[in-house]
Every structure is written in structure tokens, then in C-alpha cells.
């Protein structure tokens, strides 16, 4: 070591930066896990909801399905499980079994479980979002990755996925998303595996998670299958030279998707339901819009009116556009998975029905590429004050968006205005 050089000050500075990063990470992650359930409770507070009724559009559907599921309880558990695979043509059996199982376990009515299940689902989505970003964004020892993963978790707590999930009561879709984030993680790890043992392990985990998504919500599972296939094509085209045995990995992932599809087909044959088209949703009956001349108006309705207009979040859309046009890296598995999702969005946005557009947009975690755009701006170890202020501003805007949405889930009609049927009226 040369005379006069002392590494101690530099080492102390690095330790302080690491400690500061850890504190910020823990603070954001803790805030996300505290805020997420509180946000779901907020619409039920008496000052916000004096009538004390439900706040979700699909609440009554789930209550009807749960009532149907209990109709044959006296015949035993096997009959209940069989009924779960046929109610609403079997498109969400595990979700219905989970609702009635929780209600039985804690001795409360099914309606209470249906109404307050989002209190658990919101932090679950926060956790899966954090784990996905944390373990696919960069090296495990990079503390800045942990901090941005925590930021992604915090933004997820205020995201349109959570807000729309509460507003529309998309319980099955929500459960499918939580498991779907883990499926994306296993998919990325399978492609990046360094040996056959890891490839087999991650592929088996991917298949198991896919089946879980399928039993939670058939349409989320079908969307995820398409994401996997598009991811395989993008990965083979852009990163096959940087990974070992790309042909084998491509074949294995396609085989996993095909096996999942085959199991769904076998399930449908056994229970006498239609494969994939498990309900009479508009998503199945009419995927493509029949009126090409009204596509712009239809998209405007999807973003500005349908599901309360809560799918539209200009801040997230703008940051995601920045990432999509200038910051994505095809060498990274997470970026390729997100590109696959954005690629799939193009079809429903251009040609799809309102239902198709809503489902695909809700399933796409726009908040993650938005955070990746921030992650790619500037250095990863030092953050200028302007960047810190930008992040604070984004969180503030997101929080305002979420809490205002939760406080306005009921529909206030102008005087003299009437609807053909009631819809969340005070």
C-alpha cells in the first residue's frame, strides 16, 4: 500500500451508504405492508361508507356461487369439491373453496370473507411483487436492487391492480395474479438456469404454480400461458447466445405450457365443462370488437369509465412508456417478461372488447416497468436530490389516487338521474 493512502474513510462511507439504503428499504417495505391492508379497510370505515354495505361490483356473484357450493355440503367434501369445478363452468374452483374454507375455519358468514378478503390479498400482491423484482432485477448482494424492489412493493400497494381489484371484487383474478408473479419468477429462473438440475427444478415449480393459477382463475392462467410462449420466442431470439442450451430450455418451457393446457383439457372432460372457456364472460364470447369504427371510443371508455376509470394512471403510463422506449434491456429476463406482456396488450387495445381490454390491462403490472425506468435513471449508488424528489412526488400522486378512489367507490347520481339497474348506490 502506498504511503498516505488510508482505505478507512472510504470503507466507513460505504458502510454508511449501505446502512442508509437498508433503512430506506425496510421503511418502504414496512410502509407497503401496513398501507396495503389499511387501504382495503378504508372503504368500509363508517365515515366513508355510512350504509355499511359492500363496495365491490362482483360481491353478489361470489355470494351466489358460495351459496351454490354449500347447497350439497351435507353430501360430503368430495361433492363440494366436484361442485366447485362445475359452478360458473368451473373457471375458479380453488377460489370458491378457499372462501368457504376460510368462512368455516373462523366461523363467519361467506359474505364477510368475500367482502374482506382484499385485506389479505393486497399485501399478498405487494409481497409477490417485491420478490419478483428483488430476485430478477440484479445481483442478490446489490442493496440498491433491494431498495427499488421495496419501492416497487410500495407502488404496488397504490397500483390500479389493487384499486380495481377492490372496486370490481376481482378476487379470483387477484389470487391468480399473486401466484402469477411467482410463475414469472420461475419462468425467468428456468431460462437463466446454469445446469439441467436447476432447469428441471424451476420448470417443475413453474408447472405447479401455473396449475395453481389455473385453479384460482382460468383467464389469468390463459393470459399467463401466452406470456410464457411470447417470452420463449423473445428469449430465443435475443438472448440465446448468452445462455446455455437455449433449444432445450425453449423446448422445456413450451412443454410446461402444453402440459398445463393438457391438464386443463383433462379437467374439463372429467367435470363436463368447456376447456379454457370456463364461463359465459364477454371475454370468451366476443374477444374481438365487432365495430372497428368505435375502437378509439371503446378504448377511452375502458380507461376512463369502465371499472370506475381506475385502470388509467397517467404517472405509471408515462414512466412505463419511458422504460419501453428507452430503458429496457433484452439481456435481462425480467425485461423480456415485461416486453412479452406489453406485446400481448397491443391486440386487445387495437381490436378487443372492453372486457378483453380491461382484463389484460389489469393483469399487466405497469408499476414494475415504471419503477425500472426510475432504476435506470442515474447511478445506482448515488441519487441526486431531484431524483429523490421525483420518487416522493410519484408516491404522493399514487397514494392520492388510491385513497381518493377508495373513498369514492359508491356511485353518486345527479338529481333526477336514474339507472336501469342498481350499481353500488348509496
Could you walk me through the main structural features you see in this protein, from its secondary elements to its overall organization?
The chain folds into two domains: 54-116; 117-376 and 384-406, no CATH class. The chain has 19 helices and no strands. Mean pLDDT is 85; it is low at 277-284. The N and C termini lie far apart (76 Å). Helices cover 69% and strands 0% of the residues. The longest helix has 34 residues, at 8-41. The protein is globular and about 70 Å long. It is mainly alpha-helical and 426 residues long.
Q: What's the helix-strand series?
A: HHHHHHHHHHHHHHHHHHH
Q: What structural category characterises the helix and strand content?
A: mainly alpha
Q: Give the uncertain stretches in residue-range form.
A: 277-284
Q: Roughly what percent helix?
A: 55-70%
Distance from N terminus to C terminus (CA atoms, Å) equals 76 Å
Q: Work out the number of β strands.
A: 0
Average of per-residue pLDDT values:
85
Number of helices: 19
Oligomer: single chain
Radius of gyration (CA) equals 23 Å
Main sheet characteristics: none
Report strand %. under 5%
Shape: globular
Query: How many distinct domains?
Result: 2
Provide the fold topology:
Layout: H1 8-41, H2 59-70, H3 77-84, H4 93-106, H5 110-116, H6 118-134, H7 143-157, H8 160-168, H9 171-191, H10 196-216, H11 218-239, H12 246-271, H13 282-285, H14 295-304, H15 314-327, H16 333-351, H17 354-363, H18 367-376, H19 385-406
List keywords for this structure.
426 residues, mainly alpha, 19 helices
Structure summarized in a few sentences:
The chain is mainly α and 426 residues long. Helices cover 69% and strands 0% of the residues.
Amino acid at each position: 500500500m502506498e504511503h498516505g493512502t488510508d482505505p478507512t474513510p472510504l470503507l466507513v462511507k460505504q458502510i454508511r451508504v449501505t446502512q442508509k439504503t437498508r433503512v430506506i428499504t425496510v421503511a418502504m417495505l414496512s410502509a407497503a405492508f401496513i398501507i396495503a391492508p389499511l387501504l382495503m379497510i378504508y372503504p368500509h370505515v363508517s365515515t366513508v361508507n355510512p350504509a355499511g354495505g359492500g363496495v365491490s361490483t362482483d360481491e353478489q356473484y361470489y355470494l351466489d356461487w358460495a351459496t351454490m357450493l354449500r347447497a350439497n355440503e351435507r353430501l360430503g367434501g368430495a361433492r363440494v369439491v366436484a361442485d366447485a369445478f362445475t359452478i360458473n363452468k368451473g373457471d375458479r374452483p380453488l377460489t370458491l373453496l378457499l372462501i368457504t374454507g376460510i368462512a368455516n375455519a373462523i366461523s363467519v358468514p361467506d359474505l364477510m370473507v368475500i367482502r374482506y378478503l382484499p385485506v389479505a390479498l393486497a399485501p399478498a400482491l405487494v409481497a409477490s411483487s417485491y420478490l419478483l423484482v428483488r430476485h430478477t432485477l440484479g445481483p442478490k448482494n446489490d442493496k440498491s436492487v433491494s431498495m427499488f424492489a421495496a419501492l416497487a412493493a410500495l407502488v404496488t400497494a397504490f397500483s390500479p391492480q389493487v384499486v380495481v381489484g377492490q372496486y370490481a371484487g376481482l378476487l379470483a383474478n387477484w389470487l391468480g395474479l399473486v401466484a402469477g408473479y411467482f410463475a414469472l419468477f420461475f419462468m425467468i429462473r428456468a431460462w437463466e438456469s446454469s445446469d439441467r438440475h436447476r432447469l428441471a427444478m424451476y420448470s417443475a415449480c413453474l408447472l405447479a404454480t401455473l396449475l395453481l393459477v389455473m385453479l384460482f382463475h382460468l383467464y389469468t392462467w390463459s393470459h399467463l400461458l401466452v406470456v410464457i410462449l411470447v417470452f420463449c420466442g423473445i428469449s430465443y431470439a435475443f438472448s440465446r447466445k448468452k445462455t446455455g442450451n437455449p433449444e432445450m430450455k425453449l423446448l422445456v418451457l413450451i412443454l410446461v405450457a402444453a402440459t398445463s393446457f393438457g391438464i386443463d383439457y383433462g379437467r374439463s372432460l372429467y367435470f363436463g365443462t368447456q376447456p379454457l372457456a370456463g364461463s359465459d364472460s364477454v371475454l370468451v364470447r366476443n374477444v374481438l370488437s365487432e365495430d372497428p369504427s368505435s375502437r378509439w371510443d371503446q378504448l377511452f371508455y375502458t380507461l376512463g369509465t369502465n371499472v370506475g376509470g381506475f385502470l388509467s394512471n397517467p404517472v405509471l403510463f408515462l414512466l412505463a412508456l419511458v422504460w419501453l422506449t428507452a430503458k429496457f434491456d433484452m439481456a435481462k429476463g425480467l425485461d423480456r417478461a415485461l416486453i412479452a406482456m406489453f406485446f400481448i396488450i397491443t391486440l386487445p387495445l387495437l381490436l378487443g372488447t372492453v372486457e378483453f381490454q380491461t382484463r389484460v390491462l389489469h393483469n399487466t403490472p405497469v408499476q414494475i416497468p415504471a419503477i425500472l425506468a426510475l432504476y435506470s435513471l442515474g447511478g445506482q449508488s448515488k441519487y441526486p436530490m431531484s431524483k429523490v424528489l421525483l420518487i416522493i412526488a410519484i408516491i404522493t400522486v399514487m397514494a392520492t389516487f388510491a385513497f381518493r378512489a377508495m373513498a369514492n367507490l359508491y356511485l353518486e347520481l345527479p338529481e333526477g338521474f336514474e339507472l336501469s339497474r342498481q350499481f353500488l348506490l348509496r
